[in-house]
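Two quick folds needed for the group meeting slides. Do the first one here.
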Amino acid sequence: MTTRYSYQPARGHGLPHDPLNAIIGPRPIGWISSQNAAGQRNLAPYSFFNCFNYHPPIIGFASSGWKDSVANIVETGEFVWNLATRTLAVPMNESSASLPRGEDEFAFAGLTPLPASLINVSMVAESPVNFECRLTQCIQLQSADGEKLPSWLVLGEAVAIHIDEALLENGIYQTAKAEPILRAGGPSAYYGISEDLRFDMTRPDARKA
């Protein structure tokens, strides 16, 4: 019989490290570029990120605290998601530094700002995939008992998507070829994706049941 370690998060986990972000993982990285109304750029990675809708495409990230990214996006209504890859791991990590408000993480991390096509936010030129997004919702999270939490979920519609054509084979995007990096648990763990680990399944046809 399986022995389970159980805990109630409100009472603490009782382990050397909180297992939550290791269990829900690896997680795609929300490498978010934004700028304020004065035109000052910001770039920061968020490990709570994903895609939530196909049509229209809506992506989102959660920020623990009212950080520059959230403030900029609420102010201007725009942001860009940039794909973080293995070759960009170091500058991605550099862009997580807590710089004073208004300082440019693009310059700090040695990255090239590239003008977007439909919005007034710079994309990471070195990234092979960029989503230009317009804000749809900014939601302050709350607990089950209604307590407001110091975390915000930012959702945006991708209005323009740019893909390095080298990642398209016969029109099919090659996920592993992009070498995306994924955040895991603890202070330093990341993972990659390999084509060797791929397996395929199709949805069952309920009509045949």
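Then this one, please, same format:
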Amino acid sequence: MREIVLDTETTGFDPEAGDRIVEIGCLELYNHMPTGKTFHEYINPERDMPDEAFGVHGIGPDLLLTPRAAQAGEVTLKDKPVFKLVGQVFLDFIGDARLVIHNASFDMKFLNAELKWMGLPQIPWEQATDTLAIARKKFPGAPASLDALCRRFGIDNSSRTLHGALLDSEILAEVYLELIGGRQPDLVLAPEQGASSDGGAGGAWRPQPRPAPLPSRISKEEAAAHDAFVEKLGDGAIWKTCR
């Protein structure tokens, strides 16, 4: 089963009011295990950055990236691609995989707005799994923010001084696995991708019978001693009636 853990950063709360996506971060899970494949893009929103949004993710009013990103060689969003240059690549990456998103309605409305403006297919709402809804159902009345869930599950989020799409996706992947019961939520060993019952390509792995039974570990002397002991128990012994 392929899943994509996804997060976005934006200029605000409402795409219909002119707000845009400025960052997308995704990572791939296969059978609830990270594969190492990611999708990450900073995006030029072609507009200014409100102070409120800057306080959340640190991508500033002048389109400068966060200090952490600047240290990695990034300078400005002005040189980053606009969404129409990455939208199809993004769709190709996610494919028909299940999308794991915290507060899915927020990210989905922005992604579908950007895709609509490009004339690209919308992402079906039922393709998304909302970890916020899962957390609220599992822990009713308790705080369900990503930070609160990290505290509940003992997940280190000390590097999350500001929101960042890829970092938040990595943290969310850990939270999601805890919410569904760990890396093997069904207590079944997950097969490697493409593994089959006979070790080749195809369906899921299944245990097979041994080609030959294991030899007995009881010696002839031990078996004879056991039989002699049972004979001494008399005819009413359960060991005799069940043989």
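Slide caption for protein two: DSSP finds nine helices and five strands in the chain.
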